[in-house]
Amino acid sequence: MILGRVCGTVVATIEHPFYDGKKQLIVRACLPDGSFDGEKYVIAVDLVGAGVGETVLVEDEGNSARQMMGNLKNAPIRSVIVGIVDQVALG
User: Fold this and answer.
1) CATH for 22
2) Are 25 and 6 in contact (CB under 8 A)?
3) 89 domain-assigned
4) CA distance 8 to 56
5) What one-character-per-residue DSSP string does the chain give?
6) Is residue 47 part of a domain?
């Protein structure tokens, strides 16, 4: 699982039927203090209604992502947004 910030959306005119009606967002990994963690990013299916600029939790492992989508055995998915983060407390 990674902590990240939503940086944008993905719009495709032609895509795999699995993605019909699913919002895909670009999420850039960040550290607990909010700074970006290098150049790592993922494209994730949004399950929680996140928007650009929000800090989110992303499940970035294919099998877990498929289980969250209803255990679709052959679904072409790796990453899903599973939570919107209100606050990160260290210490």
Assistant:
1) 2.40.50.220
2) yes
3) no
4) 13
5) -EEEEEEEEE--SS--GGGTT--EEEEEEE-TTS-EEEEEEEEEEESS---TT-EEEEEE-HHHHHHHTT--TT----EEEEEE-S-----
6) yes
For residue 21 the two structure tokens come to 């009606």
Please state the separation of Cα 35 from the chain's center in Å.
17
- Measured CA to CA, the distance from residue 9 to residue 61 in angstroms comes to 20
Q: Is residue 80 part of a domain?
A: yes
What domain range is 15 assigned to? Answer: 2-84
Q: Which residue has the tokens 């498929």?
A: 66
Question: One digit per residue, pLDDT tens: the chain, 91 residues?
Answer: 999 999 999 999 999 888 889 999 999 999 999 999 989 999 999 999 999 999 999 999 878 888 887 756 778 889 999 999 999 998 8
Tokens of 10: 């993905």
